[in-house]
User: Fold this.
Amino acid sequence: MADDTQMIVVQTHHSSVLHVYVQGNLEEIHSKTVILTVHDVGTNHKSFIRFTQHPSMTDVKNKAVFLHVCVPGQEDGAAEYIGE
Assistant:
């Protein structure tokens, strides 16, 4: 994981847990653009972290704080979904 990324756990009202990976400094959310990402099936926060680490994203990364949300089942080590 990138050195500037931290994971926080958010307990929702409906008793599920969201893992949110903060890329950047949360103390700067009032002075920078906040970009919220939610990932498609089969991916998680790591794909967007790799994307933001590309050299072409340097200016954007310097002006933003990214919040990468992993919904239940997208976190590292999640069990496979067995549904209907």
The radius of gyration is 14 Å. The chain has a mean pLDDT of 86.
